[in-house]
Write a structure and sequence with these properties.
40% of the residues lie in helices and 18% in strands. By secondary structure, it is of the alpha+beta class. The protein folds into 5 domains: 124 residues, no CATH class; 182 residues, 2-Layer Sandwich (Dna Ligase, domain 1), CATH 3.30.1490.20; 106 residues, ATP-grasp fold, B domain (D-amino Acid Aminotransferase, Chain A, domain 1); 106 residues, Phosphohistidine domain (Glucose Oxidase, domain 1); 224 residues, no CATH class. The strands form 4 sheets. The protein has a 9-stranded mixed β-sheet, with helices on both faces. An 8-stranded mixed β-sheet has the order 12-19-18-14-15-16-17-13, covered by helices on one side. Strand 16, helix 15 and strand 17 form a beta-alpha-beta unit. Helix 2 packs antiparallel against helix 18. The chain is elongated and about 105 Å long.
Length: 862
């Protein structure tokens, strides 16, 4: 405010009393009938009020957009990380604080208790975001014969499952021990690397593949170079010595990751971490550090982000298992991953160790074996060589698979070996990840004549279109464009880094049991393996369509195939980060303050940031509405709108909303005096079609109204309505706030339509009605359908509707305001007839026809 602006009121002895500041001067005027007003001071105070009001509206718009972003990711399950959670929470807190501050300026500090509500809610949000998972406690080393399901937090799902297989199911597993999560926690704490790793992860742009690989290598080097604390090294060496006693001197071990969360019911982490075979005693400590460091391999970082895990949610333990002298190895599924209720199981087998099988680099036999005794072989694909497995071995595998499925209570994905003594050894058993989306089983129809390639094995159904990009090396990987079709020679686990970027996957070799196939199924990425010649035949940039249900690849964009376009998979559901955001959102999004006339509409009852924004917005509008009345400053008092209209309206000009030359002392205003673009758009919608009056009501509908009238306190004449229950517009050239209260209905529309897209928005709130609940629900869902058709983002809770559009051009928003204007007039009493289906459809068709004639065709389509 300007220095030196003065305002006076008369004291008892007639002397003038000077006060400093326009706001304090106006406070002295409120309620004083004989005040002598300085118009310049009043005008300056009003400008100050309006600046605070505009600041509050801008912050409110930003806050509501941020809330909508949170709701959208929770609803869609689109992958997000802690940077999203922190960023949105911080931005929300800043904007809500601005609203609280602006309201204090508008009200002269009358709502100081809002600060307490804001501090309490934001403190709760900060505590949730800063919360760390509990660190594991227990021995640094545990042997498998002491491990079961109860030890998952200490040894990870993979090793706890293996302990169950040995100790509860009674099947053979390799002897060995586990370096626990407690050991890894102690190792990482002793290394002093936590803060540096946190810094690198927080600043990482996961979409930048070069930065991803550089950061990954940097973190892995830090961990691999750190010394293992003596107490952990001693426990590991003692564990190996005990293993030697069980198996004999010089035993080599297989060292396998068993991170907390790995191989769990909902996420597999298949192939994301390192496994090292044939490790001798002198290399155990170095290999242990390398496996711990593999938590930060690039594909593991991407996988965790996509599946909603913070890096601190995953603590690595490492299994040290005696090597199996395997004649053959493989993977079996106790049911088909492509047909969850299949009466058969599937077995992939190859000579020697199982590593090449899961990596997709080995040629494998494929068997389908009946789940029913005597486990007949339904299909055997062995190529031109001798089968790896005979009938008795297949039946032994089948019986083991059924025992594991029965014990764990779900279909299983099992890695196994058969040693030189003919003994079956189980290496891993985890829940089977079913195919996400697409067809349950490959469609029998052959590929069309136009197919470029055919004959591949569908490992994840669905359809996709994109440009081919062949990846053979890590250099190719770094250049992979988002939305391309990934074409590879072998389905190596490291290609999983691209699962968040690829539209589909095609591999020349491989099968459904590879780690990449498992990840493709989890992510719902259409994938076909074993499509011979794909990497040689296809060139980068070729536009293709993949029919992953039939194993067919077509040139160009094939709309017939794309009718079966794969639906997005919610990868985040029930993940740690998703649950954390849900908990944060409970302090942000729910709206508990809905009725401004309620005694509970107060700062003390604000339980969320949304409550605070609602309170601030309502009270800010009230402050602007009552400015002229409180101060006796006629130019800013409400003026009644004159003309032929179904309702009575008042208008308050905030700034340049009335034509130049209009006398601000007038008590009435005509629509020709209005130059507010959003108000004129609303008014055009209101008056475009003459209202035919309330619909005829049946006796049943009338009965529901009369019953509700006896139950609703809002029509009690002793209850004072907010702002005198007037219908009013607050306007400026580019802004309009409309509040309409009629009987049981409450409607609020607000818009800003300026030249900058970032500031533009339309907001609409509607609730209430005179009829019973079911009729009000039908009416509010009719509104929802219509508004969504015109581009509004709509949320309905019971009979209350909220709709918004942001960041659109002025012309687009003005056309939408015409829609709102029409609906305000023509739907206000429709709930009374919504119990009669024919009548409901009649009004729906009438509304759609009217709006089609009111709204410009181009605006409706944009």
């Amino acid at each position: 405010m300007k220095e030196g602006v003065a305002c006076y009121r008369k004291t008892g002895d007639g002397r003038g009393m000077k006060q400093n500041g326009a706001l304090s001067k106006l406070k002295s005027l409120i309620g004083i009938s004989d005040a002598r007003i300085d118009p310049a001071a009043a005008e300056e105070a009003f400008r100050s009020h309006y600046r605070s009001f505009r600041s509050l509206l801008t912050a409110n718009n930003a806050a509501l957009e941020l809330m909508a972003g949170i709701e959208e990711v929770l609803r869609q399950g689109r992958p997000f990380g802690m940077s999203f959670v922190r960023g949105h929470s911080t931005a929300l807190s800043v904007n809500v604080f601005k609203m609280v501050h602006s309201l204090q300026e508008l009200s002269g500090g009358r709502y100081a208790s809002l600060n307490d509500a804001f501090s309490r809610i934001t403190a709760e949000i900060d505590e949730i975001i800063a919360r760390e998972p509990p660190f594991p406690k227990g021995d640094f080393v545990l042997f498998l014969d002491r491990i079961g399901r109860d030890d998952t937090d200490l040894v990870g799902d993979k090793m706890s499952n293996l302990g169950e297989v040995s100790n509860r199911v009674g099947l053979n597993v390799p002897p060995g021990f586990v370096i626990t999560a407690a050991a890894t926690h102690r190792f990482m704490r002793a290394s002093g690397l936590k803060d540096e790793i946190n810094r690198l992860i927080k600043t990482l742009d996961i979409e930048d593949l070069e930065e991803l690989y550089t950061t990954s290598a940097q973190i892995q080097k830090l961990i691999s170079s750190a010394p293992v604390p003596p107490e952990i090294a001693g426990a590991i060496k003692e564990g190996y010595r005990e293993l030697v006693k069980q198996t004999g001197p010089g035993v080599l071990v297989s060292m396998r990751s068993s991170a907390v969360g790995e191989d769990s019911q909902s996420v597999s982490f298949a192939g994301q971490y390192r496994t090292q075979l044939n490790v001798s005693e002198e290399f155990i400590l170095d290999t242990y550090k390398e496996i711990v460091a593999s938590k930060y391999q690039s594909q593991a970082i991407v996988y965790r982000h996509q599946r909603g895990f913070r890096h601190q949610d995953v603590i690595m333990s490492v299994g040290c298992l005696a090597m199996v002298d395997a004649v053959c190895s493989g993977v079996m599924f106790s049911r088909s991953p492509r047909q969850w209720q299949s009466p058969w199981m599937e077995i992939n087998a190859a000579p020697g160790l199982g590593g090449p099988v899961v990596a997709g680099s080995a040629r494998t036999d494929f068997y389908r074996v009946s789940r029913d005794d005597p486990n007949q072989v339904l299909l055997s694909e062995t190529g031109d060589r001798e089968p790896v497995l005979d009938l008795e071995q297949l039946r032994k595998l089948a019986r083991a698979a059924l025992r594991l499925e029965d014990h764990f209570g779900a279909p299983q994905d099992i890695e196994w070996s058969i040693d030189r003594e003919g003994e079956l050894v189980i290496l891993q058993s985890r829940p089977l990840a079913p195919t996400a989306g697409g067809s349950a089983e490959p469609a029998p129809a052959a590929c069309g004549e136009t197919a470029l390639l055919s004959g591949g094995l569908p490992v994840q159904g669905g359809a996709a279109c994109g440009d081919v990009f062949v990846v053979r090396t890590n250099v190719d990987l770094l250049e992979f464009p988002k939305g391309a079709v990934l074409v590879v020679e072998q389905p190596l686990p490291e290609w999983a880094t691209l699962m968040n970027r690829a539209a589909a996957v095609v591999s020349e070799t491989g099968h459904a049991a590879t780690h990449l196939a498992i990840v493709a199924r989890e992510f719902g990425v259409p994938a076909v393996f074993g499509m011979a010649g794909a990497a040689r035949t296809l060139g980068n940039g070729d536009r293709v369509t993949l029919d992953a249900d039939r194993g067919c690849l077509y040139p160009g964009r094939n709309e017939r195939v794309l009718k079966r376009l794969s639906q997005p998979v919610n990868l985040m559901a029930n993940s740690p980060v998703y649950r954390l955001l849900e908990e944060v959102a409970e302090r942000i999004i729910p709206l508990n303050l809905t009725d401004p006339g309620s005694p509970f509409f107060a700062p003390a009852h604000c339980r969320t940031l949304h409550d605070i924004t609602r309170f601030c917005h309502e009270k800010a509008v009230t402050e602007m509405f009552l400015f002229g009345e409180k101060t006796g400053f006629d130019p800013k008092s409400a003026k009644q709108l004159s003309g032929d209209m179904p309702l009575r309206w008042w208008v308050i000009d905030l700034e340049d909303g009335l034509r130049p030359g209009f006398d601000p002392r007038e008590k009435f205003v005509f629509i020709e005096d209005i130059v507010s673009e959003p108000m004129l758009a609303i008014w055009e919608g209101m008056t475009a079609k003459r209202w035919a009056g309330p619909p005829a009501v049946s006796l049943k509908g009338l009965g529901s109204i009369l019953f509700r009238s006896t139950m609703d306190p809002r029509i009690d004449p002793a209850v004072r309505a907010s702002m005198g229950a007037k219908n009013y517009f607050l306007i400026s050239k580019n802004f309009c706030n409309l509040s309409m209260r009629l009987g049981y209905h409450f409607t609020l529309a607000e818009a800003y339509t300026g030249p900058m897209l970032t500031e533009n928005y339309v907001s609409f709130q509607f609730r209430g009605g005179a009829a019973d609940r079911s009729r009000r629900f039908i009416r509010v869902n009719l509104l929802k359908d219509i508004l969504e058709r015109y581009g509004f983002r709509v949320e309905v809770i019971l009979d209350a509707l909220t709709a918004r559009i942001e960041r659109k051009p002025k012309g687009y928003l003005l056309e939408r305001l015409k829609v709102l204007g029409y609906l305000l007039i023509h739907t206000r009493q429709l709930d009374m007839v919504m119990g009669e289906q024919d009548m409901a459809w009649h009004y729906r068709r009438m509304i759609e026809k009217d709006l089609a004639s009111i709204i410009k065709e181009s605006a409706r389509d944009n």
